[in-house]
Amino acid sequence: MIAEKKNYITIPNLLGFYRLFMFPVILCFILTGKENLFAIFLVINLLTDVADGIIARKFNLVTEFGARLDSMADNFTYLLAFTGIFVFKLDDFQPHIFSFVLWFFLMISTVIMSLIKFRRFSSFHLYSFKIGGYIQGFFFIVLFSYGFVTPLYYFMVVWGILASLEHITIQLIIKEMRSNAKGLYWILKEKNTENQQVDSYS
């Protein structure tokens, strides 16, 4: 259950607003070829994403508004990450372009499906996406500080593909958008409970 709070000026929300504010700034770093600045501030964005979730849960600051804001900021951060890879690191990804495009396509599909079916960005915050975010953050740090590590790349991509498929499956199952859905297991468990309640009344 999400605790609704009237105060929108919270630390988690400010971190979300920061990521949105930094979108055009980091995009300028990409367009002007400033790879180091792009990498540094992208990693900061990823770290603030981790921080706002931890703070929100620890201090009971989880709200519907915050969940939507966080998801929107995440989508823009992913867009920056993919754009930066195409601009700065495409040569490293060329031998693995099929898996990369597949992952990108599935990620975009989760956003498009949500906008079409629910007319808003999704705010599931699935555990698989949260863990995937940690893996991706680590991969980007390694990529821009050390280089392309193939086993780490495939671990990240396979996890990302599976998380996206879970996300799409949930969108197909549910009738209304919800925040903090956790994962497919919890959705199916909830539906099973609802079905049992219906059966008990029939």
Give a concise summary.
With 202 residues, the protein is an all-alpha fold. The protein is 78% helix and 0% strand.
Binned strand content: under 5%
Q: Which CATH C-level class is it? A: Mainly Alpha
The structural class is mainly alpha
How many domains? 1
Q: Total strand count, please?
A: 0
Overall CATH architecture: Up-down Bundle
Total count of helical runs of at least 4 residues: 8
Radius of gyration: 18 Å
* Arithmetic mean pLDDT: 89
Low-pLDDT segments: 1-5
Give a quick account of the main beta sheet: strands, pairing sense, barrel closure.
none
Distance between the termini: 28 Å
CATH topology: Four Helix Bundle (Hemerythrin (Met), subunit A)
H/E element order:
HHHHHHHH
The residue fraction in helices comes out at over 70%
* Net shape: globular
What does this structure look like?
With 202 residues, the protein is an all-alpha fold. It has helices at residues 11-31, 35-58, 64-88, 90-93, 97-118, 127-145, 150-173, 184-201. It has a single domain (11-201), classed as Four Helix Bundle (Hemerythrin (Met), subunit A). 78% of the residues lie in helices and 0% in strands. The longest helix has 25 residues, at 64-88. Residues 1-5 have low confidence and may be disordered.
Summary keywords:
8 helices; globular; mainly alpha
